[in-house]
Amino acid sequence: MKGLLLLVGAMIVLCAAAFGTMWHVDMDNTSGIEDGTPWATAFTVIQDPVDIASSGDEVWVAEGTYPESITIPESRPMTGPKAGEVRAFEGGEFAWVPAGTFEMGSELSAERVESTYGGQAQWYKLEHPQHTVTLTKGFWMGRYEVTNQEFELFGKETGYKTEAEREGWGYGWIKDTGKWDRVNGISWRNPGYAIQPKHPVALVSWHDAVAYCRWLSRKTGGRYRLPTEAEWEYACRAGTRTEYQWGDAADDGRGWLNGGDQTEYEGQCWPTPFNFEDGYWFAAPVGSFKANAWGLYDMHGNVWEWCHDWFAVYPSGPATDPQGPSTGTHRVGRGGGWSEVPGFCRSAARDGVAPDHRYGSMGFRLCRH
Ligand SMILES: [Ca+2]
Ligand SMILES: [Ca+2]
Which of 168, 221, 229, 316 is deepest in the core (most CB within 10 A)? Predict the structure, then answer.
């Protein structure tokens, strides 16, 4: 019997190495269990990992009163992808964002954000109250902002024209005033700066972004959509509670983002910039900076990203899988863009933008189910 137990122990180790799927079994719940007892009635699923196998595999157990051989039923839930696991789909590379709970919104007062990170307190008022959000389902999130190259295919295959293309204008950054304003003749093809295929698509409205998701879903059979605002912030934080994914100090963001920095453009500087040069005045090719802990690039800066939700005051208590209100006037934008002060590039920062508006520093990224 001892020899059998040793052999069985070795087999469990081998199973662990071969399959790598973790099962949670209560090894103390053995009363009344005899050889041949069906697996499903022999053990209670709990938190402690004991055994490792794939569904349908025969597994040996190294305890005398346990059944010597068990078969894990196909109906047992499998462990999902790991946080940050990368998979390529038709819509590009995606990283797995696991289900979980986090504190959504800002710990700091709006005034504190203004004094520490620049901008104006009124921009940050609606980051409160910070509240507990639970996301009950994991999801795939695009590792990169959607690029010009990807968006171009959408137009080619469908003949789709963006709102800026149809109406002949969009919001561009005006060098002479240093502000954003209506500019005739600009669109995602020409957002007011030289673009490359790997630049994030910009100057697309919320309607344009949703149209892209629908086209890609129809074309591929996958389910692509914009992230909810809660999904976006949870994915951006990737387990952190700090102001940015790298910590609380804006100046430690060198190498992490393309924001309003000290890079000069035709003799100009951003008024209250990050205190370093990131090398880009306008957009940077996606993935030019470090990824966060879950493998997502440019969650801070580069282009603002449209979210699914209507923009509104946060709920006062905990929320589960929040989707935002059912109606509204503005949709949520997240993450800040290439022209933004450090305060607007924080994980908790949010802005509301009319769904037909389009800016040269605003694009989107996808979620997939
Ligand atoms: Ca920059
Ligand atoms: Ca971004």
Answer: 229
Please tell me the distance between residue 286's alpha carbon and the centre of ligand 2 in angstroms: 9
95 and 210 in a single domain? The answer is yes
User: Is there a single domain that holds both residue 123 and residue 194?
Assistant: yes
| Same domain? 318 vs 200 | yes
34 and 95 assigned to the same domain: no
Residue 279 CA, ligand 1 centroid: distance in Å: 6
Kindly state whether residues 52 and 91 are assigned to the same domain.
Answer: no
The tens digit of pLDDT for each residue in 234-283 reads: 999 999 999 999 999 999 999 999 999 999 999 999 999 999 999 999 99
Residues around ion ligand 2, judged by CB within 5 A, are 298, 302, 335
Among the residues of the chain, which ranges form H helices? 2-19, 39-42, 110-117, 121-124, 148-158, 163-167, 206-220, 229-237
Exposure string for 109-137, b = 16+ CB within 10 A, e = fewer: ebeebbeebbbeeebbebbbeebebebee
Can you say whether the dihedral through the CA atoms of 356, 272, 228, 146 is positive or negative? positive
Number of domains in the chain: 2
Counting residues of the chain whose pLDDT is more than 90, the rounded percentage is 77
Ligand 1 centre distance from Cα of residue 329 (Å): 30
**How many other C-beta atoms are found inside a 10 Å radius of the C-beta of residue 12?**
17
The residue range of the domain holding 36 is 2-61
Distance 180 CA to ligand 2 centre (A): 18
